[in-house]
Amino acid sequence: MKKIVVAIDGPAGAGKSTIAKLAAEKLGYAYIDTGAMYRSVTWKFLQTGREFDEAFISELANTMIIEFKPEAKINRVFVDGTEVTEAIRTPEVTAIVSRVAAIGAVREAMVEQQRRMGEIGGVLMDGRDIGTVVFPHAQLKIFLTASVEERARRRYKEMVEKGQQVELAQLQEDIAARDKQDSERAISPLRQAEDALLLDTSDMSIAQVTDKILQLVQERV
User: What is the secondary structure of 11-34 as a DSSP string?
Assistant: First the structure.
């Protein structure tokens, strides 16, 4: 059976990574977490302690090596040989990852890596511009979304379970602001590709969304 490229786009907190990992595992596809790639660049930059500098960050993005190593149910992330799976999910990284991802040279460097990873097919990628920029000819494009309130509730639950102190109202504000920033940026803004299928998961369970994606893949192979 042939293996296709599946592109999943959508706003922050829509559950793209969770769903994509599960779907890839069930399909026997490789899962490429593009959001983790931009977070990795952001983490690498923060380690330097320097002021925000687009040229410097671009240089880092063009020289660093990002790798994914699936282990059990964890998609471990490595930057130049150092594991950053948890480190790239900190509030410090989250606070500026949109600014880093908006840098043209950074996006070019990451897109080049992403295309190389997916050129043989059998790949499931999620992000903000997979169906519009990275793989405009992907055989299946899905725009995964949910209401701001539902996305904030999910993120709140996730962070509390990790022992992090957070306020639900603040999360709603942050997610709404992130949506605006991602949608209005000049380079590769967040938008639904014309041929992408809209999937609102506000009232769906993880299992239901995963099953729907598996069904859509089967229809295309």
Answer: -TTSSHHHHHHHHHHHHT-EEEEH
The whole-model pTM stands at 0.75
Please answer whether residues 190 and 175 qualify as being in contact, where contact means their C-beta atoms are separated by less than 8 angstroms: no
Q: What are the tens digits of pLDDT across the range 165-206?
A: 889 999 999 999 989 988 888 877 889 999 999 999 999 999
Q: What is the DSSP secondary structure assignment for residue 88, as one 8-state letter?
A: G
Instruction: Flag whether pLDDT at 124 surpasses 70.
Output: yes
Cα gap 93→13, rounded to integer Å: 15
Q: Which two tokens stand for residue 162?
A: 């990790």
CATH superfamily of 5-220: P-loop containing nucleotide triphosphate hydrolases (3.40.50.300)
48 alpha carbon, distance to own chain's centre: 24
pLDDT at 1: 66
Q: Strand 66-71: give its sheet, edge to edge.
A: 66-71, 74-79, 82-83
State the amino acid at position 81 in one-letter form: G
pLDDT at residue 118 above 70?
Answer: yes
Q: What is the DSSP letter of 192?
A: -
